Amino acid sequence: MSALAEIQLQVMWNRLIAVVEEQAQTMIRTAFSTTVREAGDLSAGIFDLDGRMLAQAVTGTPGHVNSMMESVGHFLAATMQPGDHYITNDPWLGTGHLHDLTVVTPAFHRGRMVGMFANTAHVIDVGGLGFGPEGRSVFEEGMYIPIVKCFDRGTANATFFDIIRAASPLPVELEGDIYALCACNDEGVSWLAAMLDEFALDGLGTLADFIFTRSLRATEAEIARLPRGTWH
Question: In the chain, at which end, N or C, are there fewer CB atoms within 10 A of the end residue's CB?
Fold first, then answer.
């Protein structure tokens, strides 16, 4: 690969990080829960079609980034169309407790799916007992949402929102948070389409290979610098 090609790919990588940062900032600006707006208890990122994370927003928490990264693989079996949004708070597929919602959204470009955007946010209410140590099982924390489509080709799933409103003591806030999570991913999809057009890209394959190869080499180089020996 020529030096010029490497520079171009590095610029695209930096742009991808900017795209997911816009994604995260959209969630902060639109979320109802103070845990998201004030504490930044969230994560946002872009994934390739194999569910591998290509870039993560600087805004967010490491715990949410890693759990989001692991949870996206469980959404791959879904048949995704433009405008779809899938959601879950399954603690065994995601973050470990029901207050963390994960939304995954496909990104299409020129009629072809090129990637996925995902986010995880700790919302203030999902029904149940709420915050505190009183719960004796995860089910007492609130609603247990399997992987389900909350938006179908841009149209809200009315049945889903009827259920979450009925089960929550703060229905306006919870519904607003879910809309914020979906808007967050929509913003990422929009910025990605503009980026692909600007750089005349058909997809993310070449850039993904560059990101993973460079990241692996950098990690191995840092490990190689460590002195050999045993310490306690």
Answer: C
| Dihedral over Cα of 19, 204, 189, 43: its sign | negative
What does the alpha-carbon distance between residue 232 and residue 228 come to, in Å, rounded to a whole number?
Answer: 13
Contact 211, 111 (CB under 8 A): no
Q: How confident is the model at residue 136 (pLDDT cuts 50, 70, 90)?
A: confident
Handedness of CA 211, 216, 221, 222 (dihedral sign): positive
pLDDT (tens digit, 9 = 90+) per residue, 33-84? 999 999 999 999 999 999 999 999 998 888 888 889 999 999 999 999 999 9
**Section 209-229 average pLDDT:** 95
Q: How far apart are CA 231 and CA 101, in angstroms?
A: 41
3-class DSSP state of 63:
helix
Q: What is the CA radius of gyration of the chain?
A: 19
Instruction: Report the candidate in 121, 103, 125, 97 with the shortest Cα–Cα distance to residue 41.
Output: 121
Residue 171: exposure state from Cβ atoms within 10 A (0-12, 13-18, ≥19): middle
Decide: 46 and 55 in contact? Cβ < 8 Å: yes
96 burial class (0-12, 13-18, 19+ CB within 10 angstroms)?
Answer: exposed
Closest CA to 119 of 61, 171, 203, 39: 61
